[in-house]
Design a protein that fits this description.
Order of helices and strands: HEHEHEEH
Low-confidence stretches: 16-27
Mean pLDDT: 83
Radius of gyration: 17 Å
Strand content: 5-15%
Strand order of the largest sheet: 2-1-3-4
Length: about 120
């Protein structure tokens, strides 16, 4: 019985490591365009590493040199609490523009929806 538990735990650890190894590293912002990034509000992305929609969101943001803070809800318990409690969401990706009373929350991702919410956030 103990051998079975140890074997199962080893299998789970190896599967977790394999999934984490498949996740691409997050792209870095282009330092030559640092001045352009000042025109964006604070953007926080709630995501998980294995989610294809989260990956698409990260690729869009980094590809367009849009600064953001990535909060992986599987690795960060406080981020998970914020996502489920404060933002009343059980799904990812969730983007939060701005902070405090001026926050604008976007659930899901498409480039068009992002640009629409970005315009709203800039007006606040």
């Amino acid at each position: 019985m103990i051998r079975m538990i140890i074997a199962l735990a080893s299998l789970m650890l190896s599967l977790t490591a394999a999934v984490a190894a498949d996740a691409p590293p997050q792209s870095q912002l282009n330092p030559g365009k640092a001045a352009e990034t000042q025109k964006y509000p604070r953007i926080v992305l709630y995501s998980v590493a294995w989610c294809p929609h989260c990956r698409q969101t990260k690729e869009y943001l980094t590809g367009n040199n849009i600064p953001f803070i990535n909060r992986d809800v599987e690795l960060d318990g406080a981020a998970m609490e914020e996502l489920t409690g404060k933002y009343n969401s059980t799904g990812v990706p969730v983007l939060v523009f701005g902070s405090g009373k001026d926050e604008l929350v976007m659930k899901g991702f498409t480039p068009e929806l992002f640009q629409e919410n970005l315009k709203k956030a800039r007006k606040k």
